[in-house]
Each structure stands twice: as structure tokens, then as C-alpha cells.
Request: fold
Amino acid sequence: MRPRVNPALFFLLPALTLIAVFYVVPLALSIYIGFTPLRNWNIAGGYLSQVTLENYERLFHMVMYDPDIGKVVATTVVFTVVTLAVNVLGGLALALTMYLMDLSGRELSLGFRTLWMLPRMTPIAVYSLMWYYFFLPGEEGILNSIAMRLGLIDEPVNWGNDPDLLPYGAWAILVVVNGLVGVSFGMVVFYAALRSIPREQIVAARVDGASTLHLVLYILIPQLRWHITYVTVWQLLSLLTTYAHIFLLVEWGAVDEFWGSNWALYVFNKAFALGESDQGLAAAAATILVLIGAGLGVLALRLMGFGRMMAEPRGEV
Reply:
């Protein structure tokens, strides 16, 4: 008899093929290139046959002794942690606010919900340009203009480059720009989950005398455990590897070159810098970023009780 093909494998094969071609193979190549002294894309120079740990030794030395790389590492940590909190908690707060207003009969308009989606729907270049003009250091900058009219400052401030404000000015800009993009994602996921909760549970809780605070803490949020875990891990991995908005803000001079750069942008600049590029060092740095991302993702799942949520119900004892 001819062996039967597993139907699940048949349907998963296209997705597995795409993952292998566009994720697994590039990752394997990046790991290998990280052990070679490849520079300036000189593939024909024989560098790919030279396996060495030099790139990892250079990275370790730079992280320990290069103050500029230390700024990049610090920015990566602060940017990831603070923006993740803004994305998850901000999205949850927005979703709960809209849901509670729906329960009270004051349903928000579709236009209000769409407003929060604009950062995600707007092209990256256009969205970054808007914030560039908002934080522009001259009097024509929107923030400077508003602050001067209100009497909060006497002269324009270079928010992302002023030595007196660094590193906090640059960090604040990065968190604001990228935070609003992530907030919309969390809001959509959480709001959809809240709308799926049977209305009878809400009515029963109200009949039993539950206040709005008790309703949120003991009825709504516990049923969002899956969604909070998903949004947290997704946004964590996304923030570790994001650099598009940051790249434009750095290139346009809106933030400091090092206090306004994260590790992903450092990898991109090393690999694709005009003139002297270092693909070996960039690949090693990218490999480290992948390992850190995988470790943090697993840690986040364990801390948020993913294993317990996946376990089969014990049933009645």
C-alpha cells in the first residue's frame, strides 16, 4: 500500500516552504557570514571561506569599551521596554475605554477608532516626516511654536540633540513616534476580544453589584490573558527589530546619532553603509539580536503563564 500523506502536512506545506525560504535560509546565511570577515559585499574575494570569531570579539570589545556603542545598547533597552509598556498598556486602556462606553450606550464613532489607526496606515516616510516637523529645533517646529506661545520656553529647543536633554529627549521622541504605531495594534486586538465576551456575563456582574473597577479587574482583563500574551510577545519581538522610523529620524537629524539609534539600526547601517560597510560584523550583531529576541520571547511566554494556558483542563475533582 502507498503511504498516505498527512492532510495537515499538505495544508501546512506552502506556509512551511515560505518560512524556510524567507526566514530559515537567510538566518542560516547570516549566522555563517557572522563568522567571516566579509566587507563591502566582496563575495568574490574569498572571505566566505575564512571562518573566524573575530567579529564576535570585536563586538564584545566595542560593547565594553566604545561609548558610542554603549549608547546604542542603552537606547535599545530603554526604547524596547518603555515602548512595549506603552503599546500594551495604552492599547489595553483604549480598548477598555471604548468597550465601557459601548456598554453605557455612548458608542464611539467609527471615525474616532480610525483616528488611532492612522499611524499604522500612514506610510513610514510620511509619518516620520510629520514628527520631524513636530520636533523641528527652530521656531518653525510645531512643538517649539506651541511651547513658546504658552510661555513654557523662551527660545527654540533642539529636543532630540540638545546635550542638556540627552539622552532623555531622544528617547522620548523614539517612544512617542513608535508607541503610537503599536498602540493601534493592541487596541484592535483587545477591543475585538472584549466584544466577543458574552454580554450576559456583564449583566450578571452588574446585577451582583460589581463596580466598573471590579468589572475590569475580575471579569474583562482575566479573559484577555491570551490576547495580552500575544500582543506582548509580538510587540517585544517587533520592537527589537524595528528601525525604519528611527533610521529616518536619525538621517534627518531629529535625534542624536547614537542616543537615537537602536541595535537593529546599527546592524542595518553596518551592512548597508555607503562607502565602508562590514557585512561580517553586521551579521554577527544580527545573530546576537536573534538570540536575544528568542530568549526574551521564551522568557515572556513563561512569565505570562503560556504553559498553563495551553494545558488541558483538569475537570472536576
